[in-house]
Amino acid sequence: MTIKDYMQQVGQRARAAARAMARADTNAKNGALHAIADALLAQQAELIAANRKDMEAGKAQGLDAAMLDRLELNAARISAMAEGLRQIATLPDPVGQISDMNFRPSGIQVGKMRVPLGVIGIIYESRPNVTADAAGLCLKSGNASILRGGSESLHSNQAIAAAIKQGLQQAGLPADAVQVIETADRAAVGELITMTKFVDVIVPRGGKSLIERVSNEARVPVIKHLDGVCHVYIDDRADLEKAIRIAFNAKTHRYGVCNAMETLLVAEAIAEQVLPELGGMYQEKGVELRGCETTRNILPYAVAATEEDWDTEYLAPILAVKVVKDLDEAIEHIDRHSSRHTDAIVTEDITRARRFLAEVDSSSVMVNASTRFADGFEYGLGAEIGISTDKIHARGPVGLEGLTSQKYVVLGDGHIRQ
């Protein structure tokens, strides 16, 4: 069987399963989530044995320590996967919610009902726990899913898929509601992202090269963000204690995440008050500073920043620092260089805060808070499948509601249009 034929069969089964999932009630979906969690724990030995094959192959292929760490499954991580599924079961079910019902002059009632998207294709790398997380979110939101993990985690993903299938069947839901692609052939990705007849949306989770490929080649709509070039602007009307705490946390809490600050903007009126203390704190943490000329006059140990630095997502202990004249110049810089992910202002001036909220066109815009809060769990979504910087449909952290759409519903009682 060719890859095209195989993927077409997967798509057909997913489309059929999506119809069943759309009518599944909350109890059935929650029952499946708990059953999958139970199966993962019961099959722990099988999961670890399958993962060992991937780990050995990864070492033979020369995967680095960080990649191997992400790839590894152990008892604690399997337990965390199961607990994640149980947490999804506790979240409110968005499907079927009706809102904005209004009577029209004609006598009909018009509102909106939240409905599943249908079939969601998810393409991801390395971490096998994503298989369980993604399956759980798609299941709870009433969607069928096609999951394509990285070739390095093929055995682990298939073992997790077996547990998912068992849990679905135990709950009386179609086993094809979650399908994990069984081949490592890259051609499967090319088929998945162009199967407009069977797939409604694609979610890529991984490195920049993966997301660029999917974005460039997909014919199916994509929920994505490409970069996380996030800014914090310290205004000259900021509480400096708050500003230092926020700017330090936004960069150093974790480096390799999409919501870490990559550029710090500081109003020139307070730069000489803020930068020496902050710079010392960054030095202690081993953060390399790349600054504009004014920054380097204040912090001589900073490296000269290039134009490229303002557009770079470092995902590392490196920070670009620029002193700007005022709020206008800060917003102008963000507009030119931001990746539209998350940007923050630190200020006690409510008028300036409102301007920043209105004029900065990012998926998350913050006042007096660290960019590290741009996360589905922190936003109260319970979990997220990714972050979108696009403007259509889902924007920002994408949780259960982001995996649904809305349709208009009209209620009448024999009404006809005059």
What structural keywords apply?
alpha/beta, 7-stranded parallel β-sheet, 19% strand, 42% helix
Note down, in words, how this protein is organized.
The protein is an alpha/beta fold and 418 residues long. 42% of the residues lie in helices and 19% in strands. The chain is built from 14 helices and 16 strands. Strand 9, helix 12 and strand 10 form a beta-alpha-beta unit. Helix 2 crosses helix 7 and helix 6 packs parallel to helix 7. The chain is globular, with a radius of gyration of 24 Å. The relative contact order is 0.13. The mean pLDDT is 95.
The helix/strand order is HHHHHEEEHEHEHEHEHEHEHEEHEHEEEE
Mean of residue pLDDT?
A: 95
The computed structural class is alpha/beta
The proportion of residues in beta strands is 15-25%
Name the poorly predicted regions: none
Q: Provide the gyration radius in Å.
A: 24 Å
Strand order of the largest sheet: 10-9-11-8-7-12-13
Number of strands: 16
Largest beta-sheet details? 7 strands, parallel
Spatial separation of the terminal alpha carbons:
57 Å
Shape: globular
The helix fraction, in percent, is 40-55%
Instruction: Count the DSSP helices.
Output: 14
Give a short summary of the structure.
With 418 residues, the protein is of the alpha/beta class.
Q: How are the SSEs placed, and which strands pair?
A:
Elements: H1 3-22, H2 26-42, H3 44-61, H4 65-71, H5 75-90, E1 98-103, E2 109-116, E3 119-124, H6 129-140, E4 144-148, H7 154-170, E5 178-180, H8 187-192, E6 201-205, H9 208-217, E7 230-234, H10 240-252, E8 261-267, H11 271-284, E9 288-291, H12 293-298, E10 303-304, E11 318-324, H13 327-337, E12 342-346, H14 350-359, E13 364-367, E14 386-388, E15 396-398, E16 404-411
Helix pairs in contact: 2-5, 2-7, 3-7, 5-6, 6-7, 10-11
